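README, section 4: Worked example with a bound small molecule

Sections 1 through 3 covered apo chains. Here we extend the same pipeline to holo records, where the ligand is supplied as SMILES alongside the sequence. The molecule in this example is zinc ion. Nothing else about the input changes; the structure line simply encodes the ligand pose together with the chain.
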Amino acid sequence: MIRSDQHMHSTFSGDSKTEMSDMINAAIENNLKTICFTEHYDPLFPSYKPGNEGKFDLDVERYIETAKRLRADESLQSKINVRFGIELGIYPDIYDIGKDIITSSPYDFVILSSHTANKVDPYFPKYWEMYSSVEGMKVYFEEILENVKNFDDFDVYGHLDYCVRYTECTDEDKDIRHYKEIFEAIFKILVAKGKGIELNSGGLRSKLKEFNPNPEILKLYKQCGGEIITFGSDAHICEHMAYEISRASDLLESLGFKYVAEFKERKPEFIKI
Ligand SMILES: [Zn+2]
Ligand SMILES: [Zn+2]
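The generated complex, written as structure tokens:
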């Protein structure tokens, strides 16, 4: 059974109002052994609402200061391992900015996420007015391929099929055969570079009602030699801490994964499921 949650947010992220201390208490109540905060940093995130510019910037100085204090807090760390990472929202124009952000601060863990494709967030209907479901998904996955080819400063790729959460697509549209070649290319590069992916349970809370990525994509990752996988609830509130963690354990085991990874100082530790 997995007992680590490697993807969560607190008030350091523009879309969470939950104090870090409340998240930590929720993790202890859930009997977790290790958690990692992965606060949002989406540099130059395209904003569609006036006044929202910079909403997903991170106050790095204050975050690292807090991390330093809590890493040194022995009474806390004796109850639970608390680590401090980042979820970097990436797209091709900002590789240099992203590299600078990651290499200039001591994060435990870096999730690389695509929250946009062609600088439009698939969360917004505008994206799906530009493309059919299959096209929109291909554009999104092809940008991930470009990112993994050209960007190295990360540990796992986040919620690989995030865009699917927001489409009105059929099961046929979602069928892996449309995207298999793109994912095979992505996984070949990830495996060669020693990077992993995450199993994110946030999608189970959306209308999609599925993990991101879905089991077919996870299966392909395994077939391509992928071994590094983390579990993350993507919790922004305490109630979502460790969301569906036992279901995630069962799914990974059924697909032949024996270990999940946790990261400390950017190095993976492999923990038996
Ligand atoms: Zn995300
Ligand atoms: Zn997140």
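What to look for in the output: The pocket of zinc ion (ligand 1) is lined by residues 87, 113, 115, 158-159 (CB under 6 Å). Strands lie at 4-5, 34-41, 81-89, 110-113, 156-157, 196-200, 229-232, 259-264, 267-272.

Section 5 describes how to batch many such records.
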